[in-house]
C-alpha cells in the first residue's frame, strides 16, 4: 500500500510548498476548453491543499508537444478555468522550471495556487530525465501525484519526481483522485463480491487482450460486445460481411474461447446495416444470418436482454468499451441498455466500475453517469490496472 494525501495531517500542510502533478490534459479549441472533466476531477485534491493553507504548485502536461513550446498546447487557458472553479486567482508561470518558477513560488501566500506551463514543453519530461526531476524536487519535500491518466507512464513529472523527492528525504503520496481510482480499479477487484461480471466491447481485441486474459480467471461471466465480438464470430466460422474484424487475432480469439468455456458470452443477434452512418436503415439478424454485404453496428435486442440480466444479477461489474457504434443513434441502443442495467444494479448496491473513455462517455449519453459507483478518468491507465499491471506513477510513491 502507498501513502495517501488523506493520511497526512492537515496541520502539516499550512504554509508548506506542495508540488502536485495532475492531469489537466483537456481538449482546447481556439483557446476555449471544450470538455473540462479532467479539470473538475483534479479539484478535490487542489481544494483540499488550498483550504489547508498549502502553497500549491501544480504540474501537468497537455497534448503531445514533443519537447518544445507550442502555443496551442499552453496551459494558460486552464489556469483561468481553474481560477473560476476554485474561486480564487490561480497564478500561471510561462515555464515549468527555472528562475521564473522559483520567483513565482516566493510570491505564494498560504492557500495560493500556481500552475506551471506544460511539462512536455521540456524534452526531459517524457524521457524521464533525472536532472529535470531533481530540479522540481528541489522546490518541495512533499509531492502529491494525482495524475491517474498519466500514471502508466514513467516520466520526469510523475515517477521521476516522486523518486527524486524521496531520495532527498521527502515524501511522495497519492492524491485523492489517484487514491480513489486505485481503490476501485485495483483493490475492489482483488476479492470481488460474486457474481463478478466483466463487460468488454469497443473496436479491437488487440488493445484489450491483456485485460481479457487477466479477468478471465477471476470472472463468473465475460460479456463481449462491440466490434471485438466480430473477431470471435470469425473464430466460430461465422460470416461477418463487411464488419470490422481483426484478421490477425482470429486464432487468439479461438484460444480465448477454449480457455473460457461457458464463462465467455458472445452476442446471439446483431444490428446490421449496409453502412455505419447516421440515419441508415438497420436490420436485426441472428448471428448466424449476417449477410456478405452487412456491417454489424450493435448487439441485437435478444443479446441486450441477456446481457442486461447478467449485469443486474451481478454483485460486481467492470465495463470497458461500448457494445456498438454508440456515437450514431441507430447503433447506440445496446450500449445504452448496458449503461442503464449497470445503473440499476448500482442502485441495488452492486459495485459498478466503468474503465475507459468511450464507455464513460456512453454512460453520460445514457444519462446514468451519476448512478455508477465509479467511472475512471484514465483510459490507458485503467486498462493497465484491469490487466493487473502495476503503474510507475504508483509504485514510485512512498510506502504507507
Ligand atoms: P473504450 O474507450 O471505452 O476503451 P474503445 O476505444 O476500445 O472503448 O472503443 C470505442 C469505439 O469502438 C467506439 O468509437 C465505437 O464506435 C467503436 N465500436 C464499437 N462497436 C463497433 C462496431 N460494431 N463496429 C465498429 N466500431 C465499433
Ligand atoms: Mg477509446
Architecture blueprint of SSEs:
Blueprint: E1 17-21, E2 28-29, E3 32-33, H1 37-51, E4 55-59, H2 76-86, E5 90-93, H3 99-106, E6 113-116, H4 130-137, E7 142-145, H5 156-167, E8 171-174, H6 176-187, E9 196-200, H7 209-215, E10 221-224, H8 228-235, H9 250-260, E11 264-265, E12 269-273, E13 283-286, E14 295-299, H10 301-313, E15 316-320, H11 333-347, E16 351-354, H12 357-365, E17 374-375, H13 379-386, H14 392-395
Parallel strand pairs: 1-4, 1-7, 4-6, 5-6, 7-8, 9-10, 9-15, 10-11, 15-16, 16-17
Antiparallel strand pairs: 2-3, 12-13, 12-14
The structure holds adenosine-5'-diphosphate and magnesium ion.
What does this structure look like?
With 400 residues, this protein is of the alpha/beta class. The chain has two domains: 5-177, Phosphoglycerate kinase, N-terminal domain (Rossmann fold), CATH 3.40.50.1260; 191-386, 3-Layer(aba) Sandwich (Rossmann fold), CATH 3.40.50.1260. It contains 14 helices and 17 strands. β15, α11 and β16 (351-354) form a beta-alpha-beta unit. α1 (37-51) crosses α2 (76-86) and α10 packs parallel to α11 (333-347). The longest helix is centred in the N-terminal third of the chain and has 15 residues, at 37-51. The model has no long low-confidence stretch (mean pLDDT 96). It binds adenosine-5'-diphosphate and magnesium ion. The site of adenosine-5'-diphosphate has 20 residues, from β14 and α12.
Amino acid at each position: 500500500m502507498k501513502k495517501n494525501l488523506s493520511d497526512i495531517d492537515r496541520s502539516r500542510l499550512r504554509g508548506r510548498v506542495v508540488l502536485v502533478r495532475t492531469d489537466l490534459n483537456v481538449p482546447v479549441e481556439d483557446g476555449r476548453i471544450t470538455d473540462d472533466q479532467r479539470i473538475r476531477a483534479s479539484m478535490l485534491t487542489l481544494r483540499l491543499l488550498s483550504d489547508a493553507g498549502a502553497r500549491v504548485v501544480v504540474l501537468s502536461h497537455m497534448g503531445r508537444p514533443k519537447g518544445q513550446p507550442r502555443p496551442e498546447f499552453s496551459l494558460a487557458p486552464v489556469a483561468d478555468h481553474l481560477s473560476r472553479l476554485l474561486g480564487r486567482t490561480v497564478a500561471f508561470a510561462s515555464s515549468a522550471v527555472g528562475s521564473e518558477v522559483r520567483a513565482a513560488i516566493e510570491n505564494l501566500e498560504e492557500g495560493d495556487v500556481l500552475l506551471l506551463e506544460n511539462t512536455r514543453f521540456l524534452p526531459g519530461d517524457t524521457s524521464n530525465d533525472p536532472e529535470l526531476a531533481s530540479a522540481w524536487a528541489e522546490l518541495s519535500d512533499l509531492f502529491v501525484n494525482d495524475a491517474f491518466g498519466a500514471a502508466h507512464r514513467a516520466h520526469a513529472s510523475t515517477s521521476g519526481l516522486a523518486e527524486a523527492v524521496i531520495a532527498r528525504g521527502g515524501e511522495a503520496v497519492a492524491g485523492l483522485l489517484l487514491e480513489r481510482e486505485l481503490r476501485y480499479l485495483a483493490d475492489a477487484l482483488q476479492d470481488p463480491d460474486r457474481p463478478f461480471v466483466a463487460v468488454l466491447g469497443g473496436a479491437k481485441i488487440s488493445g484489450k487482450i491483456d485485460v481479457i486474459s487477466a479477468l478471465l480467471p477471476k470472472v463468473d461471466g465475460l460479456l463481449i460486445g462491440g466490434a471485438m465480438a466480430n473477431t470471435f464470430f470469425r473464430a466460430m466460422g461465422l460470416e461477418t460481411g463487411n464488419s470490422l474484424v481483426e484478421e490477425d487475432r482470429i486464432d487468439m480469439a479461438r484460444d480465448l474461447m477454449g480457455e473460457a468455456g461457458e464463462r465467455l458470452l458472445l452476442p446471439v443477434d446483431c444490428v446490421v446495416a449496409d453502412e455505419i452512418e447516421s440515419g441508415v436503415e438497420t436490420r436485426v439478424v441472428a448471428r448466424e444470418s449476417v449477410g456478405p454485404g452487412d456491417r454489424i453496428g450493435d448487439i441485437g435486442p435478444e443479446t441486450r436482454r441477456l446481457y442486461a440480466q447478467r449485469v443486474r444479477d451481478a454483485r460486481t461489474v467492470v465495463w470497458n468499451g461500448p457494445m456498438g457504434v454508440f456515437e450514431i443513434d441507430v447503433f447506440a441502443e445496446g450500449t445504452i441498455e448496458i449503461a442503464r442495467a449497470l445503473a440499476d444494479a448500482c442502485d441495488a448496491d452492486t459495485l459498478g466500475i466503468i474503465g475507459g473513455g468511450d464507455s464513460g462517455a456512453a454512460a453520460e449519453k445514457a444519462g446514468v453517469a451519476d448512478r455508477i459507483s465509479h467511472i475512471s478518468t484514465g483510459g490507458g491507465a485503467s486498462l493497465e490496472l484491469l490487466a493487473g499491471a502495476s503503474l510507475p506513477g504508483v509504485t514510485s510513491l512512498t510506502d504507507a
